Amino acid sequence: MIILYDLPSNVPQPWAPNIWRIRLILNYKRLPYRTCWVEFPDVESTLRSISAPPTSVRNDGRPIYSLPAIVDPMRSTRQPVVLSNPNTIAEYLECTYPARQIFPEGSRAVQSLFVYYVSEIFVKPLLPIMVPLSHQRLPERSQTHFRAHSPIPLSVPPEREQVWRAAQEQFNFLAGILDKNAGMDGDGVVVMGHELTYADFAVCSVLIWIEKVAPHEGWARIRQWNGGRWGRLWERCQGYMDVF
Predict the structure, then answer these.
(1) Do 91 and 70 touch, CB atoms closer than 8 A?
(2) For the chain, what are the domain ranges?
(3) pLDDT digit of tens for each residue in the chain (244 aa)?
């Protein structure tokens, strides 16, 4: 059984979007797994203890360890496979367990570019609100650690409506791109036209983050934007939101 490492919270279900990307894939591919909960202060020591590679490297050369991470026992080999970084994990799961594809033939490069956009540009306007709200959902010990290391202020800005308007501009832009799939080329909801793929899970993981952390202020409005498109995408992925 695959082990997925995730962050505990004080809401009924986890919220971290990068980790939800992998959980959605595991559920979509119907792979048996269990979740191992790791608080923020223990992430680096835990990942080092299982010989997980660092997620990235700081400018001074020091490694950065972050979640998600997985351990796949791989019965056919003597050593388990241990990975971090959501994109690396997604590609590994696709290559190792190709049933129910998330990277249709010829789409890997385009999807990688799309997911980069979601991670680096699409979510940026949300951070001033979502990071402080996410911090509030952490256990007390993790909150203390997060406050000491967060590069983003942890007080929700007073100009909340201005932040949501900036976020809506990104949602509008992405909706305009996805509208190109409407009609004969696709249903206009999913990125590749008809079937769910990794790109959809990258977007839906952001929607889940908002739905779990800001259900009334954020999700209540976003699910209505762009003619209800984001609510429809969330519903398409809902069957893969189980937590084991």
Answers:
(1) no
(2) 2-96, 108-240
(3) 999 999 999 877 899 999 999 999 999 999 999 999 999 999 999 999 999 999 999 889 899 999 999 999 976 667 899 999 999 999 999 999 999 999 999 999 999 999 999 999 999 999 999 999 999 999 999 999 989 888 888 888 889 999 999 999 999 999 999 998 887 667 779 999 889 999 999 999 999 999 999 999 999 999 999 999 999 999 999 999 999 9
User: Tokens standing for 103?
Assistant: 């990277």
Q: Find out whether 4 and 19 touch, Cβ atoms under 8 Å.
A: yes
- Amino acid letter, residue 82: V
What amino acid occupies position 79?
Answer: Q
- Domain 108-240 - what CATH class? mainly alpha
The three-state secondary structure class of 5 is strand
CATH topology of domain 2-96: Glutaredoxin (3.40.30)
Angle at which helices 198-213 and 127-136 pack, to 10 degrees? 60
2-96 with 108-240: one CATH topology?
no
On the CB side of 47, CA atoms within 13 Å amount to: 24
